[in-house]
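RECORD TYPE: inverse folding
INPUT: structure tokens
STRUCTURE:
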């Protein structure tokens, strides 16, 4: 068959997962090695023989339209279909139903990085007469497509990601007869059209091409990583390498002559100013950006117009790009900051409904915390911080608070967390830091209960049998059942043993505790600790906080250091024997909760990195069980899982 001369390029998506990068520009206009993704797709279809394209637009269409006007198209006819309301990939085809003629035509997503030959699609049409030939790939992506001898049987596999499933890559050659199977209504997906056609007996053919490159650019992390993949393919002469130009390699090399080091890759746009002494690690820097001398950009994306300094990891974008909507501007003006001269650096997903943003101006830094409605205690952060500060507990200073907008602005610390310090300090220096933390923790644990009443401090419910039961259930549901797929009798035995631990802890005296006192929640300011994430504070046993700190899987303190620090804290209390006797039971309880939380968060794509802490958690639990009598079912479970990890060849963790 002759090569199709028309293509519909789908560029109307909102790009919600790419925010704040897509606040001012559509996703199709995000630069990939300095060139808009839409430009690569246009070049791709033109190399296939396409001579007329239709580009649909919806969100922030002006940059897209301007780009198409200014671009040299070498005789290619360009049409733009504007969607006042987002119609989906299928609705876009229905709106553009005037565009195809009587010949097959291409439909291509513009939020992908793609390098593939058209020949397998043309061969599929010639040999099998399908209504559509769809690019599929088994090497990467969500893999939700099932096939039978390359005839697609299901686009929504119930066993996605399993052997024999494929990813729908967003490139397809379709027959104009596909328009007969449009659903009713205006907004729907291409998959719905294919399903209607398949139900009527039509063939949708899957096309697999090993000599190709595909990457979904739907998240900031995938977008950033695709730059590194493309560079490697460029240097190796592999498919996908044509998605960058040799001048980008020259730009990276030229950075070295200006006192800037690059590890991995650095994609740098035009009109950028990067100060001497800056280190860049696997980062994308758009045009019109300013990087102060001596900065460290690590796994970051610096958006157009941003100005940053210090250590930046994540996405940085100017506040005037709509990153924070209205409440950002209001709360910044309250403390005298100009939103137009403020850059926001997102600090990544955490295990809650809160988001954290580092705000920078030329002379100031702050942390902005936003929270949802799932956890009422998040709204108490500011009031708790003020109360704790008055009591002498080291906490961040609150700069502004807007409960109605669920936004709090607090001081920023350039110092590292205790978790990060543990990776670099000597054993003696680290113990010195821990002793400083324990002294500050003791201040919190000795706050008189009458102060809580006087200050009308609304706490979370005190530790009780119900709270401990919730923690057991977290481990049972997400670790034992969800991750290990244990049978109910085994889960019940372990849960009953943990219930006996909780019964002892419930009878212990209560003090004001932090509740989540782990190393990542302890920062440093001028060699002194600062506590964060205390919004869940409540009355409970002091040993719970102590176990959270000393048995933290994030750090894995050596056993001897644990013992010394435990005795250090206990020796400064009025009941040292009580602390020493209950500590390891509290460690078992806390680690059970932690294993459940790691398993739950590890099963979510955005927080999958938490799963790497499960093995350290098991090692620390095994250490705690060595100090506790009974609990044989839990002991056996932990040892079996450690042996299973060892059998898989996983690297050992400290203390194992």
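DESIGNED SEQUENCE:
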């Amino acid at each position: 068959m002759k090569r199709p001369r028309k293509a519909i390029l789908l560029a109307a998506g909102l790009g919600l997962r790419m925010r704040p990068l897509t606040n001012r520009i559509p996703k199709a206009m995000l630069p990939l090695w300095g060139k808009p993704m839409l430009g690569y797709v246009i070049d791709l279809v033109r190399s296939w023989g396409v001579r007329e394209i239709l580009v649909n637009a919806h969100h922030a269409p002006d940059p897209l339209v301007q780009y198409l006007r200014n671009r040299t198209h070498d005789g290619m006819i360009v049409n733009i279909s504007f969607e006042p309301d987002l119609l989906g990939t299928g609705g876009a085809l229905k709106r553009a139903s005037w565009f195809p003629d009587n010949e097959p035509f291409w439909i291509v997503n513009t939020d992908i990085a793609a390098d593939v030959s058209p020949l397998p699609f043309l061969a599929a049409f010639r040999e099998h007469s399908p209504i559509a030939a769809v690019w599929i790939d088994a090497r990467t992506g969500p893999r939700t497509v099932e096939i039978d001898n390359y005839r697609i049987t299901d686009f929504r596999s119930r066993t996605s990601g399993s052997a024999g499933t494929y990813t729908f890559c967003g490139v397809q050659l379709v027959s104009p007869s596909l328009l007969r199977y449009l659903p009713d209504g205006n907004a729907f997906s291409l998959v719905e059209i294919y399903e209607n056609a398949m139900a009527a007996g039509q063939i949708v053919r899957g096309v697999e091409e090993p000599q190709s490159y595909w990457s979904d650019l739907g998240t900031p992390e995938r977008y950033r990583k695709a730059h590194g993949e493309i560079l490697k393919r460029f240097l190796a002469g592999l498919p996908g390498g044509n998605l960058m130009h040799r001048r980008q390699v020259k730009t990276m090399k030229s950075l070295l002559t200006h006192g800037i080091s690059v590890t991995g890759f650095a994609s740098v746009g035009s009109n950028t100013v990067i100060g001497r002494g800056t280190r860049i690690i696997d980062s994308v820097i758009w045009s019109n950006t300013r990087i102060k001398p001596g900065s460290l950009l690590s796994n970051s994306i610096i958006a157009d117009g941003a100005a940053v300094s210090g250590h930046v990891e994540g996405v940085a974008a100017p506040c005037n790009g709509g990153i924070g909507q209205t409440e950002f501007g209001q709360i910044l003006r309250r403390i005298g900051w100009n939103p137009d001269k403020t850059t926001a650096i997102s600090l990544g997903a955490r295990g809650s409904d809160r988001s954290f943003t580092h705000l920078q101006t030329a002379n100031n830094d702050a942390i902005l915390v936003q929270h949802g409605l799932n956890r009422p205690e998040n709204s108490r952060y500011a009031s708790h911080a003020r109360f704790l500060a008055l009591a002498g507990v080291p906490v961040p200073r609150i700069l502004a608070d807007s409960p109605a907008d669920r936004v709090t602005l607090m001081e920023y610390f350039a110092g590292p967390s205790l978790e990060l310090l543990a990776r670099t300090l000597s054993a003696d220096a680290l113990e010195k830091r821990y002793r400083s933390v324990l002294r500050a923790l003791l201040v919190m644990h000795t706050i008189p209960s009458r102060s809580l009443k006087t200050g009308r401090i609304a706490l979370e419910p005190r530790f009780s049998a119900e709270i401990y039961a919730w923690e057991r259930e977290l481990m049972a549901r997400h670790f034992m059942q969800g991750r290990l797929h244990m049978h109910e009798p085994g889960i019940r035995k372990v849960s009953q043993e943990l219930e006996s631990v909780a019964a002892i802890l419930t009878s212990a005296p209560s003090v004001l505790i932090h509740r989540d006192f782990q190393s990542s929640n302890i920062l440093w300011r001028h060699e002194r600790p600062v506590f964060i994430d205390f919004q869940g504070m409540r009355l409970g046993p002091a040993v719970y906080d102590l176990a959270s700190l000393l048995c933290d899987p994030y750090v894995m303190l050596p056993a001897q250091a644990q013992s010394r620090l435990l005795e250090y804290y206990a020796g400064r209390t009025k009941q040292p024997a009580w602390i020493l006797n209950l500590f390891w039971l509290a460690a078992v309880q806390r680690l059970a909760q932690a294993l459940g939380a790691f398993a739950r968060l590890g099963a979510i794509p955005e927080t999958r990195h938490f799963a790497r802490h499960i093995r350290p958690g098991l090692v620390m639990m095994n250490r705690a069980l060595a100090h506790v009598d009974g609990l044989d079912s839990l002991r056996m479970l932990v040892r079996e899982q450690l042996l299973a990890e060892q059998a898989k060849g996983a690297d050992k963790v400290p203390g194992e």
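NOTES: The CA atoms of residues 644 and 650 lie 9 Å apart.
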